[in-house]
Specification:
about 130 residues; alpha/beta; Signal recognition particle alu RNA binding heterodimer, srp9/1; four-stranded mixed sheet; 8 strands; about 20% helix; Glyas_Bleomycin-R_OHBP_Dase; VOC family protein
């Protein structure tokens, strides 16, 4: 069978605050609002065409990082390339992220967005 044309256009994050979480990533990444169907859905888009979408989930539970037995584990995280780690961390914190207590690598920083989704800021070569 021949593979049909498939194009990944977006990663979707569940949240109980679609507007708040999308505004966090709009500010953090400097992307543009692409779709706005508040209160249930929003999508932001990078100049390269990649997208990040936000879907309302009233029962959203923040994942734990790192998770222990019985805790909600993350199922996806975002990796964001930066040129300088400390200024990027400072910017993310100013935007509303929190720095995770557990940091597994020196050249990567794990943070959590306002809905608790972990994301990594990392240096080239990391």
């Amino acid at each position: 069978m021949t593979r049909p044309s498939l194009t990944l256009t977006s990663t979707v994050l569940d949240t109980d605050d679609v507007k708040g979480l999308s505004e966090f990533y709009l500010r953090l990444l400097g992307w543009e609002l692409d779709q706005d169907e508040l209160p249930d859905w929003r999508k932001i888009k990078a100049p390269t065409g990649a997208g990040l979408s936000f879907q309302l989930e009233q029962e959203h539970v923040r994942p734990a990082w790192p998770a222990a037995d019985g805790q909600v584990r993350m199922q996806v995280h975002l990796d964001i390339l930066v040129q300088e780690l400390e200024p990027a961390v400072a910017w993310a914190l100013e935007c509303g992220a929190t720095l995770a207590t557990f940091q597994p690598q020196d050249d990567v920083r794990v943070l959590q967005d306002p809905s608790g989704h972990p994301f990594c800021l990392y240096l080239p070569g990391a």
